[in-house]
Specification:
By secondary structure, the chain is an alpha/beta fold. The protein has three domains: 208 residues, 3-Layer(bba) Sandwich (FAD/NAD(P)-binding domain); 112 residues, FAD/NAD(P)-binding domain, CATH 3.50.50; 112 residues, FAD/NAD-linked reductase, C-terminal dimerisation domain (Enolase-like, domain 1), CATH 3.30.390.30. 32% of the residues lie in helices and 25% in strands. The strands form five sheets. Strands 1, 2, 3, 4, 5, 6 and 17 form a seven-stranded mixed beta sheet that branches. Strands 8-15-9-10-11 form a five-stranded parallel beta sheet. Strands 18-19-22-21-20 form a five-stranded antiparallel beta sheet, with helices on both faces. The longest helix is centred in the first third of the chain and has 25 residues. Bound molecules: 1,4-dihydronicotinamide adenine dinucleotide.
């Protein structure tokens, strides 16, 4: 049977594209190599890591956070296997949910490794080595990304002692010393999980800042908060070797500016130095699909590759490697394939780091505005001046609203604080509608909420904050 659309890969990009296309009346199949749907995000990424972040945060709160509230004598004991059970159950509910949605939308799930044979043809090789060739009008490559490793440094990841995020969410015991290579999102999230459960955590980062690309002021204050929680940072430090040895592994790093090497002994080393597009075995070169210089599938503004009828979305193409960016691309592409006008606004893609406090941002940073020569106003408001934050003892952090000096249009919002990942969306909606700092400040915010700090920061950008 011929399909309208075959999607290769069932991560957030692929499965959302398939559902949207089916809702719009297309006959859709999804090819997936893994035993369950949902890709990296649902199986070994976003979802399981959030289960562990929540559980470890609850443990840390019970261990240290309750006495100041007058709740004394709570001494939690850690049952790591049970915590991992919560993670596994969360994953199962989510991947089963995708299978249910496929059934509901009459999407054919085809288990096996997909290969693009050219326009209109996809081969699928099952676990038993049998190959079938399927015909379709359109093909979507949504194969995601894989661990990049450390550029120029051979590292043998065994997922026990030297781990990627995959092993980092499945350790059988809490490491005494966890060395994290890379101070990006994965390193800080998983470093937080194990730090809360009792590990000493050292983060070795090449740049002078953590979360490179994040607003500089946010990154600096956030690092201080993590340091206060006990995370140790070696910045401007280039890791040159990771080898098994000693009590687990040895990590060698040297100052980027030059100087003597240092060796750290670790029980476990987490390699979190980025991800690369995953296109292994897809047959893209043979099919004539062009790649860019960074190994990503090249696409135009409508997700079209160089081969007619072959499209690509998500981590395998340009742009931030974020599940929600992939989802929105999936929706836009399905709409285009159904004859509608699909579109993604890349200027308004929020990003969230799910540590405690959370970091959330949307739009441009002060550094980006300065580089672009844009005249802007910055309004800031600290959670120390917010009543709800005080009541919850969650006063760490602040909100920063950046708006155009001439027009007052909001260009970026950056939040570090409790619940930042939820609060950021009012800024995203405002920016999607081209709203101004005054619009945000004049929108009635319920009292007492943490979100009032967003309103106050907007007030600060266009006039003056009331409560500071
Ligand atoms: P990343 O790109 O965020 O950070 C990697 C860090 O490693 C960089 O700061 C880089 O300077 C550093 N690094 C590279 N080579 C080094 C060396 N030799 N020595 C020391 N440091 C070195 O990558 P990460 O954290 O692995 O995440 C991968 C992707 O997954 C990212 O695109 C991220 O956005 C996404 N992700 C998003 C999450 C979220 O939105 N909450 C959660 C987890 C992952």
């Amino acid at each position: 049977m011929a399909y309208d659309l075959i999607v290769i890969g069932s991560g957030p990009g692929g499965y959302v594209c398939a559902i949207k296309a089916a809702q719009l009346g297309l006959k859709v199949a999804v090819v997936e190599r893994r035993a369950t749907y949902g890709g990296t995000c649902l199986n070994i990424g976003c979802i399981p890591s959030k289960a562990l972040l929540h559980a470890s945060e609850t443990y840390a709160h019970a261990a240290h956070g309750m006495e100041p509230l007058g709740i004394e004598g709570v001494k939690p004991t850690l049952n790591l296997a049970k915590m991992m059970g919560h993670k596994d159950a969360t994953v199962k509910a989510n991947v089963d949910g995708v299978a249910f949605l496929f059934k509901k939308n009459k999407i054919d799930g085809i288990r096996g490794t997909g290969k693009v044979l050219g326009q209109g043809k996809v081969s699928v090789t099952g676990d038993n080595g049998e190959e079938q060739v399927l015909e379709t009008k359109s093909i979507v490559i949504a194969t995601g990304s894989d661990v990049a490793g450390i550029p120029g440094v051979p590292v043998e990841i065994d997922e026990k002692v030297i781990v990627s995020s995959t092993g980092g969410i499945a350790l059988e015991k809490v490491p005494g010393h966890l060395v994290v290579v890379g101070g990006g999102v994965i390193g800080l999230e998983l470093g937080s999980v194990w730090g809360r459960l009792g590990s000493k955590v050292t983060v070795v980062e090449y740049l002078d800042t953590i979360l490179g690309g994040m607003d500089g002021e946010v990154s600096k204050q956030y690092r201080r908060m993590l340091a206060k929680q006990g995370m140790d940072f070696k910045l401007g430090a280039k890791v040159t070797g990771v080898e098994k040895g000693g009590k687990g592994a040895k990590v060698t790093f040297e100052p980027v500016k030059g100087g003597e090497a240092t060796v750290l002994d670790a029980d476990v080393v987490l390699i979190a130095t980025g991800r690369k597009p995953y296109t292994d075995g897809l047959g893209l070169a043979e099919a004539g699909v062009a790649m860019d210089s960074r190994g990503r599938v090249e696409i135009d503004g409508h997700f079209r590759t160089s081969v007619e009828g072959v499209y690509a979305i998500g981590d395998v193409v340009r742009g931030p490697m974020l599940a929600h960016k992939a989802e929105d691309e999936g929706v836009a592409l399905a709409e285009i394939l159904a004859g509608q006008a699909g579109h993604v606004n890349y200027d308004v893609i929020p990003s969230v780091v799910y540590t405690q406090p959370e970091v959330a941002s949307v739009g441009q940073t002060e550094e980006e505005l300065k580089t672009a020569g844009v005249a802007y106003k910055a309004g800031k408001f600290p959670f120390t001046a917010n009543g709800r934050a005080r009541a919850m003892m969650a006063t760490d952090g602040f909100v920063k609203v950046l708006s155009d000096k001439e027009t007052d249009r909001v260009l970026g919002v950056h939040i570090v604080g409790f619940g930042a990942g939820e609060m950021i969306h009012e800024a995203a909606v405002l920016m999607e509608f081209g709203g101004s700092a005054e619009d945000l400040a004049r929108t009635c915010h319920a009292h007492p909420t943490m979100s009032e700090a967003v309103k106050e920061a907007a007030l600060a950008a266009f006039f003056k904050p009331l409560h500071m």
